TrEMBL record:
Entry-linked InterPro entries: AAA+_ATPase, ABC_transporter-like_ATP-bd, ABC_transporter-like_CS, ABC_transpr_LolD-like, P-loop_NTPase
UniProt organism field: Paracoccus maritimus
Annotated ranges, domain ABC transporter: 1-217
SUPFAM superfamilies per UniProt: P-loop containing nucleoside triphosphate hydrolases
Pfam families xref list: ABC_tran (PF00005)
Name of the protein in question: ATP-binding cassette domain-containing protein
Annotated keywords: ATP-binding, Nucleotide-binding
GO MF assignments: ATP binding
Amino acid sequence: MHLLDAADLGYGAAPVLRGVTLHVAVGERVVLLGRSGAGKSTLLAAVRQALLDQGRRVALVPQDHALVPQLSALRNVLMGRLDDHGAVYNLATLIRPRRADRDAAMTVLDQVGLCPEADRAVETLSGGQKQRVALARALYRGGDVLVGDEPLSAVDPAQADRLAGVIRDAFPTAILALHDVDLALGFATRLIGLKHGQVLLDGAPDIPRDLIEALYAR
């Protein structure tokens, strides 16, 4: 998938990233690394738009979760497929979910360990639980590619490891920003390192650790 070609990415007059060219093969698990502000979110947004422009079905886990706080975890998950149906079907789904839809949503809530919280309003959940609802919504949506901006940052390391396995099994291709280097090394087939508005490294996860650590040095 050819996604970007010498693109300057950012908002306003000053690009955050310059001259980015990116190809991602089907089946790759790409992890973006770098300090906060290095441009990971900017690159993910551009990648997602490029995928959508190509007609790919994209599942998204945004950094801010983008949940409706007053709705239950279950109904937030069901929103993952709203664009597959018309307004009448969607309204009925949010008021009284069909059994098949509820069962499918409950399956993914079980995958992320949230079945007991299915009918709780999202605003009553912890940060880690909200993040898992956002991941469950992406799993329910399904698609060619998962794009995730720190989708596992609010859960403990053991949970993060398990959920990374769920992502790996559910999506043929994934492009994620992760803050945990060890988690990234265990998940990725390819690492992209950002610093000072540039892609400084791009390769397999056997990149020397000191090159990765240099991404985080001031």
